[in-house]
Design a protein that fits this description.
3-stranded mixed sheet; Dna Ligase, domain 1; binds zinc ion; 3-stranded antiparallel sheet; Arc Repressor Mutant, subunit A; alpha+beta; globular; 139 residues; 2 domains
Length: 139
């Protein structure tokens, strides 16, 4: 999603486009992996925006409630967030806790159809994380 598009979503929800929100949208748009609150804080201070923890968490909650970002729970990492747009899975290294986002096109479609058929369960989304060792840590 483009930042303009994200701004549109926020305005529709009667959210004001403050400096910190705009910066956070930029940060999430540029991020290739889910970000923790402390990484977001760091990135903001690089942009000369200082915000305390309460503000950061309030803004993260706002962006989550508007559906712009979603929370990703990864073992060995604090609460992390990523843009809601794409469908991502994550490779989490148990050695260095590095995270990489990967996507598979429609990989579980047939399984989800089977769940609807056999379990009468209508899947709207799923999350899947892969844990293991990255190239650096496995040598
Ligand atoms: Zn590693
Ligand atoms: Zn998937």
């Amino acid at each position: 999603m483009e930042t303009d598009e994200l701004e549109g979503i926020i305005k529709k929800r009667n959210g004001r486009m403050t400096r910190i929100r705009k910066a956070m949208l930029d940060i999430f748009s540029a991020a290739k992996v889910p970000l923790t609150a402390s990484v977001v804080t760091e990135s903001l201070s690089k942009r000369h925006i200082t915000a305390d923890r309460t503000t950061i968490y309030r803004e993260l909650r706002f962006l989550e409630e508007t559906g712009v970002i979603r929370e990703v729970r990864l073992v060995g990492r604090g609460r992390s967030f990523e843009l809601s747009g794409g469908h991502q899975h994550h490779l989490v290294c148990l050695g260095c806790h590095d995270v990489k986002s990967v996507s598979f096109e429609g990989h579980l479609d047939s399984e989800e159809e089977r769940l609807l058929r056999d379990e009468r369960f209508r899947v709207s989304d799923h999350s899947m994380e892969f844990y293991g060792l990255c190239d650096k840590c496995s040598t």
